[in-house]
């Protein structure tokens, strides 16, 4: 569906100019499924990998409240596709990250010692490919903006529904 609003030049608002494809193959449809390479590609399709051999995603949960860590670790790791590990403070998280990599760090913003924002900065400085989700029960607008400015991919307010956490994590793994 095309955007109904148009600028005087014919461009769709916010999406750049609209282009009409012309030529002998403009109406031809590809009969290729999304997991197949483009017909002109030299890539060969990879064989299907059995579920038990697929790489598990990994999440490091950082929160000073043990009950939160246990709940998140249990729920996020329950389907077997995610390996969830947890620690109680930012310093422990950085030490663990020195020994192994994680796809995601899910951290509270307010903890004794190192704050979640300081942990976020440290993670992004040393492991920029690691996604960081921030959660807080005391979040103000300035905390949210600060977290997002430093590279957090999302900000979750406590108390939260587990479905909201699962959605945020799922967006990262897609």
Give structural notes:
- The radius of gyration is 22 Å and the shape is globular.
- The longest helix is centred in the C-terminal third of the chain and has 12 residues, at 162-173.
- The protein has 174 residues and is α/β, with parallel strands linked by helices.
- The strands form 2 sheets. It has a 5-stranded parallel β-sheet, with helices on both faces.
- 30% of the residues lie in helices and 18% in strands.
- It has helices at residues 66-76, 90-99, 116-126, 141-149, 162-173, and strands at residues 11-12, 16-17, 57-62, 82-87, 104-108, 131-136, 154-157.
- It is built from 5 helices and 7 strands; from the N terminus they run E-E-E-H-E-H-E-H-E-H-E-H.
Summarize the structure.
By secondary structure, the chain is α/β, with parallel strands linked by helices.
Structural class: alpha/beta
Helical stretch tally: 5
Radius of gyration: 22 Å
Q: Roughly what is the average pLDDT, rounded to an integer? A: 76
- Give, in order, the helices and strands: EEEHEHEHEHEH
Question: How would you describe the shape?
Answer: globular
Tell me which oligomeric state these chains represent.
single chain
What is the rounded distance between the termini? 24 Å
In terms of DSSP E residues, the strand content is: 15-25%
Question: What is the share of helical residues?
Answer: 25-40%
Strands, count: 7
Largest sheet: 5 strands, parallel
Low-confidence stretches: 1-46
What is the topology, as strand order, of the major beta sheet?
Answer: 4-3-5-6-7
